[in-house]
Design goal:
Elements lengths: L10 E5 L6 E10 L4 E5 L5 E4 L4 E2 L16 H6 L12 H38 L6 H4 L11 H22 L5 H19 L17 H24 L20 H19 L4 E4 L10 E4 L1 H17 L6 H4 L1 H23 L16 H7 L6 E2 L2 E2 H28 L7 H19 L8 H4 L5 H14 L2 H8 L6 H30 L11 E3 L5 E3 L10 H14 L11 H25 L1 H9 L10
Antiparallel strand pairs: 1-2, 1-5, 2-3, 3-4, 6-7, 8-9, 10-11
Helix pairs in contact: 2-4, 6-10, 6-11, 6-15, 6-16, 8-12, 10-15, 12-13, 12-15, 12-16, 13-17, 13-18, 17-18, 18-19, 19-20
């Protein structure tokens, strides 16, 4: 194994990816497996570089050229003063001297033009938001408002020089050695670009989240216990927090028939997902540079599911069967998610290094099992994580809510469901349909781009979403709550406000990521970053850093208000959701600071509030 050349903390010169420019960087770590150095630029940007792209600072000291070692007078004195037979006459010598002066003038023109070219390139790169700017990488101040006028003037001034350079390139005065050297530099640059994806091979996860190994170990047990506790509490006549429910017999948690129904539901959604309908889109680039393809047909799957449920109701199938065996369905989902997590971890042990998750490659079994070791586990073209994110749990959420509505009508002998139940079903149906309609936006979320697929996401998608997010509807079946029409109207307005903030903020972000040059987004200002992306500082994203989280929390409150104020249990969802989004915001803050460096600090100065304006 070759030994490393540069030590941690050493200040060296690192080449910026895709260019031949070197900048002062500091070595932070070294990956013995991938043989890559993690270096930090002055603006806080961290990149992984090969050893061949790093040089010591001493190699950049100015050295005298060999051609200047002897002066022209010394070289001429060594020659014979007598004129050789082939030596030109005096007049011809004078013309030769003039010729040399013309050549010197041409060479000077070439040098001036070549010096002007990088200035023009930097100007053009600065004027285009989507291009990289070498000045901003090094933390130099810049304006967030782009102005192309100065760039146009400079381009007009340099146009004659560019024309001269074009003519001189046709009659090159450079030696073959210089031409060969230029070709070698060009080929070296091409080879550098070709291997660029290799530089982003995930390294070992150093910063552990969720309380590290001990925290993740506890959560593997506490999360299922929390689900069962909430469901048992809803079954009680007095669901107070201090009124602990009696623990039923363990045999009552399991039913083979219920588990078979759960498997049938999972397979049915998988079949809908595999249907060759809907468009196919590419996700964000992976560390290897490859882009995975995803079929966007979640809304079609929802329509097919609604049609299947309609057929079952027409055949007089008792859908409130879900309510009667709700605890057994939750136990089946827990068992299935645990088995799926074990399978995911075992298969991840054979996955290539570049396919591992950035946040789940710590080397600790419990931590990697919980957070997910492999980023995008697939069986052929079937992406397991992407499928579980929206299909079985999210669509199952709507089906369970419908089952609770029918159970309320049957248990309380109602001809129509209560107003509270209608509001809860309607609000949450809108949320699910919106997520499926905008399914493509999921590809840019942290769940897809950063988190691996392990117990955390498997349990969250298959257990937590369908059995905790339906808590309000499940609560209303056993604890009916009557609300007036004015109260219902006020709650509806509150939900509409939250949904408008949530949807418009997400649409603004997604449209800007998809096409920053869209004329519809011309009024938006942004801060350029070293990654080529921009950080919006106007619109909703100039109001708070996570306006979509703000809209989410407002909607969560609207979903709980129809349950009244007799017990805090139906408000568990909004309390949990605030804690979840505050924690996720902290994770986003940490990752964005590492990714964007100085640009993120400037963004935080422009937008000081994280989620709640003037509060947090």
């Amino acid at each position: 194994m070759p030994s490393r050349k540069f030590a941690d903390g050493e200040v060296v010169m690192g080449r910026w990816p895709g260019s031949v420019l070197y900048y002062e960087v500091q070595v932070t770590s070294y990956d013995d497996v991938a043989h890559l150095y993690t270096v930090k630029y002055k603006d806080g940007t961290e990149l992984a570089l090969k050893e061949s792209d790093i040089r010591s600072q001493s190699s950049f000291k100015h050295r005298k050229s060999q051609s200047s070692s002897s002066s022209p007078s010394r070289r001429s004195s060594s020659r014979s003063r007598s004129r050789s037979p082939g030596r030109p006459a005096k007049g011809r010598r004078r013309s030769a001297s003039q010729s040399r002066e013309q050549k010197d003038d041409k060479k000077k023109t070439i040098q001036e033009t070549s010096l002007a070219l990088p200035v023009l390139v930097l100007c053009i790169g600065f004027c285009k938001p989507s291009e990289n700017n070498t000045k901003r990488y090094n933390g130099e101040p810049e304006s967030t408002e782009k102005n192309a006028t100065s760039c146009t003037i400079l381009e007009q001034k340099l146009k004659p020089d560019l024309e001269i350079k074009h003519v001189l390139e046709q009659y090159s005065l450079r030696s073959r050695r210089d031409e060969k050297k230029k070709e070698e530099i060009y080929s070296e640059k091409k080879s550098f670009v070709a291997v660029k994806p290799v530089e982003k091979v995930p390294t070992k996860t150093k910063e552990l989240e969720f309380g590290g190994r001990i925290g993740t170990f506890m959560m593997i047990f506490l999360l299922p216990v929390t689900v069962f506790y909430l469901l048992l509490m809803c079954k009680q006549d007095d669901p107070s927090l201090l009124n602990f429910p009696p623990l039923p017999a363990l045999e009552s948690f399991w039913d083979g028939k219920v588990f078979g129904v759960f498997l049938l539901w999972f397979l049915l959604q998988a079949v809908f997902h595999l249907l060759p309908i809907g468009k196919v889109v590419e996700g964000l680039p992976l560390s290897s540079g490859r882009k995975l393809q995803y079929r966007i047909n979640g809304f079609y799957a929802f329509i097919f599911t609604a049609a299947a449920i309609g057929v079952l109701l027409y055949l007089q199938f008792e859908l409130h069967y879900l309510y009667d065996h709700f605890m057994q369905f939750a136990a089946s989902a827990v068992a299935f998610s645990l088995a799926l997590s074990i399978y995911l971890y075992v298969r991840s042990l054979k996955a290539p290094e570049e396919e591992l998750a950035p946040g789940g490659n710590s080397g600790y079994f419990i931590y990697d099992f919980f957070t997910g070791h492999e980023l995008n586990p697939r069986i052929g073209s079937f992406d397991l994580k992407y499928f579980c994110e929206l299909r079985p749990g999210l669509i199952g959420w709507v089906v369970i809510n419908l089952a609770m509505l029918l159970a309320e009508m049957k248990i309380h002998n109602l001809s129509v469901p209560s107003l509270s139940m209608i509001l809860v079903n309607g609000f949450q149906l809108l949320y699910v349909v919106d997520a499926l309609w905008n399914e493509e936006a999921l590809l840019t979320t942290m769940d897809i781009t950063h988190d691996g697929f392990g117990f955390m996401l498997a349990f969250g998608d298959l257990v937590w979403v369908p059995f905790v997010y339906t808590l309000q509807a499940f609560y209303l079946v056993g604890h009916p709550t009557t609300i007036t029409w004015p109260v219902a109207a006020a709650i509806t307005v509150l939900n509409c406000i939250g949904y408008y903030i949530f949807r418009s903020a997400n649409s603004q972000k997604n449209n800007f990521r998809r096409n920053p040059a869209d004329p519809k987004l011309a009024n938006l200002k942004f801060i350029p970053t070293a990654t080529g992306k921009g950080l919006l500082v106007t619109g909703w994203w100039g109001f708070v850093r996570h306006p979509n989280y703000l809209g989410d929390i407002i909607m969560a409150l609207a979903w709980s208000l129809p349950c009244g104020f007799n017990h805090i249990l139906p408000y568990f969802y909004v309390i949990y959701f605030i804690c979840l989004l505050v924690h996720r915001e902290a994770r986003d803050e940490h990752h964005c600071k590492q990714k964007y460096g100085l640009a993120w600090e400037r963004y935080c100065q422009r937008v000081p509030y994280r989620i709640f304006p003037y509060i947090y």
